[in-house]
Structure formats: structure tokens, C-alpha cells
Automatic annotation (TrEMBL):
One of its GO terms (biological process) is methylation. InterPro entries: Methyltransf_11, SAM-dependent_MTases_sf. SUPFAM superfamilies: S-adenosyl-L-methionine-dependent methyltransferases. Pfam families: Methyltransf_11 (PF08241). Residues 41-135 form the Methyltransferase type domain. The keyword Transferase applies. Keywords: Methyltransferase, Transferase. This is Type 12 methyltransferase. The keyword Methyltransferase applies. GO terms for molecular function: S-adenosylmethionine-dependent methyltransferase activity.
Length: 237
């Protein structure tokens, strides 16, 4: 396990990620209907971009991150919301969670975890009966690039890999690739020497966000690829 005091999760992504809106709305809308109205755990909240959105849909939200400073900032930013608890933990640490939860949301988290099978088992253990797991992760190892290394990714995933990873503990209800146009953009960036926090990367992210209201419709036309993959699964009994 990592030492939380040494991890800065907010540095594993471009700073421009906090300055875009269309992309985050698109991601959230893709899984929000699968969140149960009970207790939810958001693992690796980072900048807290989705925390406020999730909190509106549940009775209680547990916001967690390995980065102590990230939790402090999110807590200050969301201090007016009274149904959120905050936990500093590495992945899923059952000793820090006082009760089981109904939904786990892990957005761009599992690719940072070396032993993803252990992570999945921990999610299973902390979920209530018929609990739900939502995973959003980078797709296709062919896209693995310098950006992934700078972000601390161990791997990217396919739907087949998730079927194998989840088969013992979860029933997959929905799963699909996400951001089909982004697949080609990431493939081009694979050969770029630009840093994840460079000005050119920031500009590219902001421009793409402006185009998402139009580009997102390509996801209905191109079924077999995507920059990311979304998995929505239910705990097996």
C-alpha cells in the first residue's frame, strides 16, 4: 500500500480538468441512474468534481482519497453540503469505513491500483446485499502512453478484461466504451512528447470540451472503441 502523506492525487491529471464542464456532465450522465438512493462511497475523489453531483442523489456520501490535501480542499469546497463524510484512505480500507455502502463509484481509479483483483474483492466486501459498483477507467492498452505513465497508470482496460476481473464477485448489468472520438485523439497524443500538465495539453482539453456537445453523438455510431470504458455491476449473492 502507498503512504497517503506522500501521494498527491490531484497531480495525476491535467490542471485543466477543473476548468471543463461538458465532459464531466457527459461522464456523470452516463452512470447517474445506476446510483442507489442510499449510502454511496466515492473512491479517489481527487478534485471533487463529481462529489457534489453524487451527493444530490444519495442519503449519504463518503468522499475518499489517498491524498490528505485533496480531502481538505474538497471538504472546504463542499462545506455547505451536510450529507457528506470524508475519509483519507488508499483504495478501499474496510477498517476506515464504519458501515457497508449501497453504491461504490470509482472514476479513473482502478488503473492506479497495482492489484486490481484485490481492489475488486474489497469493493465486494464493503457493499450491502445487491450493492452496485460503478467503474470508469481508461480503455485499450494500445493507447497507453507517456500521459498514462505521468498519471501513474498501471494499465488500460477492455470490456473482456473487466468480464474476467469481475466474474467471481459481480454481475455486469451495463458496460460500454465511452468517448469514441477521444480514442483517436489519445492515439495521436501517444506519440506526442507533451507533458500531462503542459500548456498544449491544457489547451487541447479545453478545446475538446467545447466540442463535446457535438462530438458525443459519435458514441452512438462507433460501438467498438473508446478512450474509456464504463462498467455498472451488481454484487453477487
Amino acid at each position: 500500500m502507498n503512504n497517503p502523506s506522500q501521494i498527491k492525487s490531484r497531480e495525476t491529471m491535467s490542471n485543466a480538468i477543473t476548468q471543463i464542464t461538458h465532459y464531466h456532465d457527459w461522464v456523470f450522465n452516463s452512470f447517474k441512474d445506476f446510483i442507489k438512493n442510499g449510502i454511496a462511497l466515492e473512491i479517489g475523489s481527487g478534485h471533487g468534481i463529481y462529489s457534489k453531483k453524487i451527493a444530490k442523489l444519495v442519503h449519504k456520501l463518503i468522499v475518499s482519497d489517498i491524498d490528505v490535501r485533496a480531502i481538505e480542499i474538497i471538504k472546504e469546497h463542499l462545506k455547505s453540503i451536510n450529507n457528506i463524510d470524508y475519509v483519507v484512505m488508499d483504495g478501499v480500507d474496510n477498517s476506515k469505513l464504519p458501515f457497508q455502502v449501497d453504491t461504490i463509484i470509482a472514476i479513473n481509479i482502478i488503473e492506479h491500483i497495482r492489484n486490481d483483483d484485490t481492489f475488486i474483492k474489497c469493493c465486494y466486501d464493503i457493499l450491502n446485499l445487491n450493492g452496485r459498483l460503478i467503474i470508469f477507467a481508461p480503455a485499450f492498452q494500445i493507447l497507453f502512453s507517456n500521459y498514462d505513465r505521468q498519471a501513474g497508470h498501471y494499465r488500460r482496460y477492455t470490456k473482456s478484461q473487466f468480464r474476467i476481473l469481475l466474474q467471481n464477485h459481480f454481475t455486469i448489468e451495463k458496460m460500454h466504451y465511452f468517448n469514441k472520438i477521444g480514442f483517436w485523439g489519445w492515439l495521436v497524443n501517444k506519440y506526442s512528447k507533451s507533458h500531462i500538465n503542459s500548456k498544449s495539453t491544457h489547451s487541447q482539453i479545453k478545446l475538446y470540451d467545447k466540442l463535446i456537445p457535438f462530438l458525443k453523438y459519435f458514441d452512438y455510431l462507433i460501438p467498438f472503441i473508446g478512450q474509456s470504458v464504463i462498467v455498472m455491476a451488481t454484487k453477487k449473492t
